[in-house]
Amino acid sequence: MPQTSPTTNNPIQISVVNASTVLTDTEIRPVVDALQQQVSNDFYPAWGINAQLTFIPTGATPPTGTWWLTILDDSDQAGALGYHDLTPDGLPLGKVFAATDIKYGTSWSVTASHELLEMLADPNINLTVFVQNANTNGTLYAYEVCDACETDNFGYNIGTVLVSDFVYPSWFEDFRTQGSTQFDQTNHINSPLQLLSGGYIGIFNVSDGSGWTQITGDKELTETRNRGNVGSRRERRSTARNLWVKSHTLREITRHNELYRQRMQRLVSRKAA
Q1: 108: Cβ–Cβ under 8 A, 6 or more apart, which residues?
Q2: Running DSSP on this structure, what letter comes out for residue 172?
Q3: The pairing of beta strand 12-18 with beta strand 51-56
Q4: What would the pLDDT profile of 22-63 be if each residue is shown by its tens digit?
Q5: Per-residue pLDDT tens over the stretch 183-241
Q6: 1 within domain boundaries
Q7: Which domain holds residue 124?
């Protein structure tokens, strides 16, 4: 089923798929409800992009023609199960690495919110904003709506669920002045292109040939040309589109998932012995 204009009456259909071994369906369901509220009540009024989320419990099959937001353990599991850059239908795919978040003490619900909103704003991971510095040079800023304010402490609660802050379109408009408008959902940002502590954004200098780099809230540059975690938006943006890979078929993913869970159960049993 082809996707059409994401209006209130015709929102983008997104399947939130539980492929994780560290989170139960019961733990994920209330987060999906909160994400739906965030999209409908906060993101849609700011960005004009709407979505309808459908939770897909463990072992169930997402409807054909939907975008996927998949809850996984980590990037190794994503590769083992065959989740790559796109859905098997060639549609947008977001990944949330819940076990990695739990390991490092960060909120997987904030990551889920982050990935969902950025997928809605730039599903093909190819949009940028050009800031011209001189007649012959300038900088492209990646059209990522949560990176600038991405840490948990800038998030906000919907009920008991912590979700990510996100920037408004005005954040990308450098003609705006401090205090002239709202730049993000929680009002932590005061000016265009401002990065909060812990925030970052991908940039591309159009004249120096350095490719995609990254600046942080501390204005430090980091290389992003090497592919990062499997399927991350950062590594996909720096990878030629013709090198993107479709995910395996649902039948293959299901079979790999069963084998993965059996392997994880054996490891747990060995540690307990």
Answers
A1: 23, 71, 96, 97, 98, 101, 102
A2: G
A3: parallel
A4: 999 999 999 999 999 999 999 999 999 999 999 999 989 999
A5: 999 999 999 999 999 999 999 998 887 788 888 887 665 554 444 565 678 888 888 78
A6: no
A7: 12-272
DSSP lists the bridge partners of residue 202 as 214
Distance between alpha carbon 70 and the CA centroid of its chain, in Å? 10
Q: With bands split at pLDDT 50, 70 and 90, how would you rate the model's confidence at 164?
A: very high
Task: Centre a 10 Å sphere on the Cβ of residue 217 and count the other Cβ atoms it contains.
Answer: 17
User: Residue for token digits 């991350």?
Assistant: 232
What's the one-letter identity of residue 273? Answer: A
Number of domains in the chain: 1
Residue matched to tokens 């704003």: 121
List the beta strands (DSSP E) in the chain. 12-18, 51-56, 67-72, 93-97, 128-134, 137-142, 156-158, 161-163, 200-205, 212-216, 221-223
pTM of this prediction?
0.87
DSSP code, position 40: I
Q: How far from 49 is each of 19, 52, 267, CA to CA, in Å?
A: 26, 11, 43
